[in-house]
Amino acid sequence: MHAASRDALSHAAESIDAIVGDDVAKAAATGAELFELVEFLDAERQLRLALADQASEGQQRCDLTDQLFGGKLAQPTLDALKTAVSQNWSTPRELRDGLVLLARRALLRGAQAEGQLAQVEDELFQLARILEDEPKLVQLLGEKMVAPDRRRQLAAAVLYGKVTKYTEALVLQVIGRPEHDAIDDVDTLVHQVAEFSGHDVAHVVSAGEVSAGQRAQLAEKLGRIYGREMRVHTEIDPELLGGVTVKVGNELIDGSLRGRIARLRAELV
Fold this sequence. Notes:
This protein is elongated. The chain has 13 helices and 4 strands. Helix 2 (24-42) packs antiparallel against helix 6 (92-113). It has helices at 3-20, 24-42, 45-51, 58-69, 75-86, 92-113, 117-132, 135-141, 148-159, 165-176, 182-197, 212-226, 257-268; strands spanning 200-206, 230-236, 244-248, 251-254. By secondary structure, it is of the alpha+beta class. Its main location: membrane.
């Protein structure tokens, strides 16, 4: 996002926090309704342009929002939308993307109120790893010729009864309106949940099981290295032969035996 949109999003996020507070029902309903609103705006280009038009005053955009959506949206959702459109967004697209982030934030407020944030983050991480092993499913979920509702139905069938309602709602949104492929989009959600929770994420792949104590030690060491709180997510890959790889953002630290052998072979060539 451009600087103006980042500032607009910051103000709108504060508004969402105040609107939903710790009210679980309100948070879930507001998040879901904002997602539906984004889908409506995706099909209404002229309306998107009008709601983000910097040639008009913020109050004028609020009045337009009242005229169009008053009585059609629940009051918390309408209040969140009016706060968002009253800000100056760099482009209509960034207003749209901002509304998606606000919807996600509302859901995360609900998860936080129910003490489920860590569970949501873990579920999303594990789902992304499952998708890595299911290329045909990833291809189907990203197929543009398949209607968004059909993709959601497919994802819902996979998720039903296995994850929290917050995880399901977040995943169904990105499956319905993907930005990249399903793996990248779900991993993006992992990082957004982590950011909301006030920490960063380390993706650790090991040749064998990593105990809770080892995860805690690794999180502490990485926190010292990167200067911020870290949460470690792990997966097992026996093909590493030994050791671990650690990925933080775009940085990969390869301390695996397989990696060491590969480097040794390269030096001997």
